[in-house]
Write a structure and sequence with these properties.
Blueprint: E1 5-8, H1 16-26, E2 31-34, H2 49-61, E3 70-72, H3 85-101, E4 106-109, E5 112-113, H4 119-130, E6 138-142, E7 150-151, H5 155-164, E8 170-175, H6 176-182, H7 189-199, E9 205-210, E10 212-213, E11 224-225, H8 234-241, E12 251-253, E13 258-259, E14 268-269, H9 272-281, H10 288-296
Parallel strand pairs: 1-2, 1-12, 2-3, 3-4, 4-6, 6-8, 8-9, 9-12
Antiparallel strand pairs: 5-7, 10-11, 13-14
Bound molecules: fe (iii) ion (2 copies) and zinc ion (ZN).
Residues 72, 108, 110, 142 line the site of one fe (iii) ion.
């Protein structure tokens, strides 16, 4: 079985999905994840049919399975907040339609932050909103670090949401940085998976975000680090990526871009081509930063 691996890629107004596929291929990926517009706002352009068709052709030529492609919902949509509920629900409905139009069937969503109302209240609001949806697209609830008032920082909270939603198909997106920061021990991932299986069921996992973490376990921070450069470490991440129980699950990198400290200009370069290479070779490269800057400069 070939590893299903890719990264976050951009999706912009000019090239749309075609640009995303080209970017993914330039990293040696066989899948990818994108936002259908700026993640920090809900302004969306109409989808261009022509570039979408060209993108689909390019995907087929390169054996990228449509089922492995992930769309990330904008992170400013907060379903736990009782304010703007109608707007959020309508926006998500439109977003789900756009995803179908683009030919995909998985959307990752941050459950939401309860903004001081308490987890119970937040989760109640999330469930209410998700019950207004009934898309064919599966919504994957992402496990969160527990930064601020984030809901979904434990498997129990995710399970509570899943149990409360009747109309909309749901699954889960694990994020290794978030799990670490939420207090799960990523050096013993099989034990974490056992716990997940007992509470939710491994078959619900539709995606896994592969990130190292800048912070120690249980820090509730959510700051991603490049593969092998953080507190989780290369060997632990490799064990997670190659875990037999997740072999059919797409692995998506969301590690930070590399700063150009060599010529001290403020350009940033994507690390994914080189991180994917390290992962395929199962060999850590402690010269990653220099290599990346050299390659893109
Ligand atoms: Fe996310
Ligand atoms: Fe993530
Ligand atoms: Zn994160």
């Amino acid at each position: 079985m070939e590893l299903i691996i890719g990264s976050h890629v951009s999706f912009n107004g000019t090239n749309g999905l075609l640009g995303s596929v080209e970017e993914a291929l330039s990293y040696g990926s066989n899948t990818f994840m994108f936002y259908t517009g700026a993640p920090q706002n809900t302004v969306r352009k109409e989808i261009d049919k022509d570039t979408t068709l060209k993108a689909h052709e390019l995907m087929k030529e390169n054996n990228i399975d449509f089922k492995n492609v992930i769309v990330h919902a904008p992170y400013i949509v907060n379903l736990a907040n009782p304010k703007n509920m109608d707007f959020n629900i309508n926006f998500l409905k439109q977003e789900l339609k756009r995803i179908e139009e683009l030919g995909f069937d998985k959307m990752v969503l941050h459950p939401g932050s309860h903004i001081g109302l308490g987890s119970e209240e937040g989760i109640k609001n999330i469930i209410f909103c998700l019950n207004q949806l009934d898309s064919k697209v599966t919504i994957l609830l992402e496990t969160m670090a527990g930064k601020g008032s984030e809901c979904g920082k434990t498997f129990a909270e995710i399970k509570q949401i899943i149990d409360g939603v009747k109309s909309q198909k749901l699954g889960v997106c694990l994020d290794t940085c978030h799990l670490n920061d939420a207090g799960y021990d990523m050096s013993n991932f099989d034990k974490v998976l056992d716990e997940f299986d007992k509470i939710i069921g491994i078959d619900k996992i539709g995606c896994i975000h592969i990130n190292d973490s800048k912070n120690v376990i249980n820090s509730h921070k959510d700051r991603h680090e490049n593969i092998g450069y953080g507190t989780i470490g290369f060997d632990n991440l490799i064990k997670i990526i190659y875990n037999e129980r997740l072999k059919n699950v797409p692995k998506i990198l969301e590690t930070p871009y590399i700063g150009n400290d060599i010529d001290s200009k403020e350009r940033l370069y994507p690390p994914y081509k080189f991180e994917i290479e390290m992962i395929k070779n199962k060999n850590f490269d402690n010269n990653l930063h220099e290599k990346i800057v050299k390659y893109y400069k």
